[in-house]
Amino acid sequence: MKKLFTTLSNIWKIEDLRVRITNTLLFLLIYRIGSFVVLPGVNAAQISSETNKEGLLGLLNMFAGGSFSRSSIFALGVMPYISASIVVQLLGIAVPYFAKLQKEGESGRNKINQWTRYLTIGITVLQAIGYLRSQITEPGSKIIDEPMFTIVNTFVLTAGTLFVMWLGEKITDKGIGNGISLIIMVGIIATLPSAFGNEFNNRVNSGGLITFIVEIVALILVVMFTILIVQGTRKIAVQYAKRIVGNKQYGGVRQYIPLKVNAAGVMPIIFAQALMFIPATIPQFFPNLSTNSVLMALVDYNSWAHNLLFAVLIILFTYFYTAITVNPNQMADDMKKNGGFIPGVKPGKTTADYIDDVISKITLPGSIFLAIIAIIPALAATVGVSGPFSRFFGGTSLIILVGVVLDTLQQIESHLLMRHYDGLMKTGRIKGRSAVPAATGTVPPAI
């Protein structure tokens, strides 16, 4: 306990760190206040508070901190920006123009960010129209007549998403941690107290307090397991040749390239969830298929068929996303230009093949573990854990929470160590997701 108070005191003594943490808390407070501001022309009393649909819509509501179900001005949150970031990142693989921008340093990143903002506006407008027409449908929920209701609130939702995106950029610039990731994390955490309280009340009322304690222990174990996956790395030793410049010697030291066991992060789960949402939409266009047993099994989020297909898609997307984000050829070329080599491996193509082989070997267990984490919420719901609380047992939300917390703590620890204070831990140092090799030549995911 004394160590904790000493660390907090050291954090408060560093003016720059104190200002950054204060700015971050203020920006996040603004976001949370805005998430309770209802759209103009919406009768909040007529809006159902249970927009807790399973699948993608339930996930979006969690990411938005409940704004989605409250018809808030921040109902769409930062998800349009995340979608735009993913599209631009994929364009960097398929379109030479964007691939060239990724290699132009700061100026290229600025142009990519500009393109991402433009695409965010387009995606937000489409999602806003779809949201207004599909989610605000209760009788008496619209005070303003159409089409003015849709026109006004399309502008409001678009402006709300752009404002949240601006808040995220300000947190990154003047706060601590990645702003977009912190906003998503705050949205997820906002739903935790109510989910925890409901689960506790249900267990106490049914005389299952011991069961609730077992659930908490299981949740802690799953969090520890997730941390191992997020932190897991395979280090490749790199030796740099000695160079004499004037009277000084450069190089001649051994460094390591840390290859992540889960280099794709949470992206495979997001891609797989988007595809798994397709079976639920097919009956809306083909009503005669609504009784198809295979289709209904895929729609049931607790069925073995759904979770098996979900796990297979995650494994496939993990390989796909790792292949497009980690470039062994670029790593080998950068290593060769800087006079580095892997002991026992020839520079050039042989090095690239060696790195590619290592990535392939560590991606398999990483993808399997990621698939296990993704289907744990369904397993938890099967054994009786309530839906909202079961989402914290794994899946996208847990991986985001673990990754963002580790990244933020890593930045705080860097400020402490830079000013010769002790770190946050007595032994070892916190390693966040941002600790990726500079030679990868990749653009990190937004979340």
UniProtKB/TrEMBL annotation:
Q: Which family does it belong to?
A: Belongs to the SecY/SEC61-alpha family.
Give TM segment ranges: 21-42, 73-98, 118-136, 148-167, 179-197, 209-230, 264-286, 306-326, 368-386, 392-409
Task: Specify the domain of life of the species encoding this protein.
Answer: Bacteria
This protein's species is Mucilaginibacter hurinus
The entry's protein name is Protein translocase subunit SecY
Q: Which UniProt keywords apply?
A: Cell membrane, Membrane, Protein transport, Translocation, Transmembrane, Transmembrane helix, Transport
Compartments reported by the entry: Cell membrane; Membrane
Q: Where the protein is mainly located, per its record?
A: membrane
Q: Per UniProt, what is the membrane topology?
A: Multi-pass membrane protein
What does the record note on quaternary structure?
Answer: Component of the Sec protein translocase complex. Heterotrimer consisting of SecY, SecE and SecG subunits. The heterotrimers can form oligomers, although 1 heterotrimer is thought to be able to translocate proteins. Interacts with the ribosome. Interacts with SecDF, and other proteins may be involved. Interacts with SecA.
Q: Explain the purpose of this protein.
A: The central subunit of the protein translocation channel SecYEG. Consists of two halves formed by TMs 1-5 and 6-10. These two domains form a lateral gate at the front which open onto the bilayer between TMs 2 and 7, and are clamped together by SecE at the back. The channel is closed by both a pore ring composed of hydrophobic SecY resides and a short helix (helix 2A) on the extracellular side of the membrane which forms a plug. The plug probably moves laterally to allow the channel to open. The ring and the pore may move independently.
